[in-house]
Amino acid sequence: MSFNFLKKKHVVDTETQDNGARLVTFVEPKHVISEQFRTLRTNIEFAGAALDKLQVVMFTSAELSDGKTTVSSNVAVTWAQAGKSVLYVDADLRRPTAQSTFGLINTRGLTTILAADAQPKDVVQETFVDNLEVLTSGPVPPNPAELLSSNRMTSLMGWMRNNYDVVVFDVPPVMAVTDAQVLMPVVDGAVLVTIFGKTLKTNLQRTVETLRMSDTKILGIVQRVRGGKTDVGYGYGYGYGYGQGYGSKDE
Questions:
Q1: How far apart are CA 199 and CA 157, in angstroms?
Q2: Where are the beta strands (DSSP E) in 136-246?
């Protein structure tokens, strides 16, 4: 298998960064993409069936603008719609979006709990989705990785497990910064989000290797398929099968 090590030029998609993710599962629950998200949720549960527990799930990607926020927020909604008590955590402390997605304030959030010792119950916010609460990022800090790897983060994780059925973490891309890596030991599994024709195979390979080195269970790989400016579908695969999913192109 050959790999193309040349950097690919593309325009970074800032739509989600600017306006938040589109919650199709809430706005159009009967849409075909909403059904795909429900199928994704079910497949994640099947993939985690062999684990001792599947309560804290991390959604990440190899590169920026691969759609992890759209996928993680919509899957969180489907869990809530299924009757689970869900906490969505915006742990992307560099490019936070949960406040825009769910129409919340972000003056306090994860960073104020970790840096200022605020109480989680006073910071978590309710949303317009039944059973779904959100912990926004809070003010952007100068040291995200240090905060996420702190003892306070470990204590906070225990509080989350005691108070929710499912905790969904939206974390930065693995290849961009080390934030996702420091959270790997405290989550139960990870879902990787990619975009057909955009995500480089080499970056996906390195991301998978990073997860495996930390013994993080890979619950699956979500492949977004875009048509113009609109998502037209989502594919899902187990393990490390990107070679077939991306055809013969080394990109």
A1: 31
A2: 166-170, 189-195, 218-227, 230-237
Task: With beta carbons less than 8 A apart as the criterion, state whether 231 and 202 touch.
Answer: no
Cα gap 150→135, rounded to integer Å: 17
3-class SS of residue 227:
strand
CA angle centred on 111, ends 107 and 116, rounded to 5°: 90
pTM of this prediction? 0.84
Nearest to 34 by CA among 20, 22, 24, 44: 24
What's the number of CA atoms in the CB half-sphere (13 Å) around residue 211?
28
| Residues with pLDDT less than 50, the chain | 1-12, 228-229, 237-251
Strand order in the sheet with 166-170: 125-126, 132-135, 86-90, 166-170, 56-61, 189-195, 218-227, 230-237
Give the Å distances, CA to CA, from 107 to 96, 114, 142.
12, 14, 16
C-alpha separations of 180 from 61, 102, 116, 144, 216 in Å = 9, 23, 22, 10, 11
pLDDT, tens only, 94-139: 999 999 999 999 999 999 999 988 999 999 999 999 999 999 999 9
Instruction: For 92-151, give the secondary structure using H, E and C.
Output: CCCCCCHHHHHCCCCCCCHHHHHHHCCCHHHHCEECCCCCEEEECCCCCCCCHHHHHCCH
pLDDT of residue 17: 57
